[in-house]
Amino acid sequence: MLTKRIIPCLDIKDGRTVKGTNFLQLRDAGDPVELARQYSLEGADELVFLDIGATIENRKTLIDLVERVGANIHIPFSVGGGIGDEKIVYDLLQKGADKVSVNSAAIRHPELITKIASLYGAQCLIVAIDAKCIAGTWQVFTHGGQKPTERSLFEWAKEAQERGAGEILFTSMDNDGTKQGFALEALKTLNDTLTIPIIASGGAGNQGHFISLFQETDVSAGLAASIFHYQEVRIPDLKKNLAKEGIAVRL
Prior knowledge:
The chain has 251 residues and is α/β, with parallel strands linked by helices.
């Protein structure tokens, strides 16, 4: 049985870790290098680093910060934000990233998925999708949740898989930062639509939400930010309780 992964997320803006609600009202959550080191020591399975201002500000990911984070952890590390072509992927992998995550640029140029997967392998590529349920349809947004698109979550996720994505990171904008639980029904539909691993993001508020996530859906990983940053939930405690519930995790 494959173990379920617990993944802290570092949303980076101006070199600091930040967290908000529904992608708004950002507040400081600490130094990304220190948080990354802490999560590595606590037994996180992977780490996600998202430079949330890169696409909006039309610049590349903070490569120097990526290098500093990579030098201080011993777990797989994915990087996203501002990745607009396949060339920067090489630089990020050289600086310590194990995977890259593409979002807005992939919507604009879907062939980017195929290019990255063919050059570096599907195992290196996560396609991140931010979506909001509007009138019963999960609509995809780009630019840190600021720009609506005409794509729907499920058809875009399926196309991303067909183009070579190795994993989908789905963030429910409706659930983000609310601490009311993950978007389980949407995640179940994604499970039925895809064959590649899914990382669930948006809404984690307590350990019970992770238990429900893994008991009610077949996603591969649960991602959270603020509850880990502010130590409302500690990763070692979470994993022990998941194991008690019969959920396979790496202890």
